[in-house]
Design goal:
Blueprint: E1 8-13, H1 16-26, E2 30-37, E3 42-49, E4 52-58, E5 77-81, H2 84-93, E6 102-103, E7 110-115, E8 121-126
Parallel strand pairs: 1-4, 5-8
Antiparallel strand pairs: 2-3, 3-4, 6-7, 7-8
Length: 127
């Protein structure tokens, strides 16, 4: 196997309309395609994030996330931003709670975390 890049990350949400609004309106991700899958009573929303994609899925009654980011499996998604202070200010103006900005011990780059409507940890990382 010789992967070229990550094609997409998939997220399952509990409230499709709320999560769609968050990812499209608040975070500004572009909709590529929205599909309703009747046999599964599920939506699939393909979102463009730079050169990558996120697939946002809805399913009836999905189980809750086990705990905060320290469970086995995917820990969080990180999005690269040019100015972390401006991004934090914007997110806060949209009612999103954002943790304090920290500095990565290894890279000396600024980063912080916030959550999507289902509590999925999301990171912003300054270039």
């Amino acid at each position: 196997m010789k992967p070229i890049k990550i094609h997409h990350a998939a997220i399952i949400c509990s409230n499709y309309e709320l999560s769609k609004k968050f990812y499209v309106e608040t975070l500004g991700f572009k909709i590529i395609q929205e599909t309703y899958r009747a046999p599964r009573n599920s939506y699939k929303l393909d979102l463009q994030v730079g050169e990558n994609q996120i697939e946002l899925f809805s399913f009836p009654n999905p189980p809750q996330r086990v705990n905060k980011p320290e469970a086995c499996g995917l820990r969080h998604l990180a999005f690269e931003v040019e100015n972390i202070e401006e991004t934090v200010s914007y997110l806060q103006s949209q009612g999103v709670e954002v943790e304090s900005i920290r500095v990565d011990d290894i890279t000396d780059k600024k980063y912080t975390f916030f959550q999507d409507p289902d509590g999925l940890p999301l990171e912003i990382y300054e270039t």
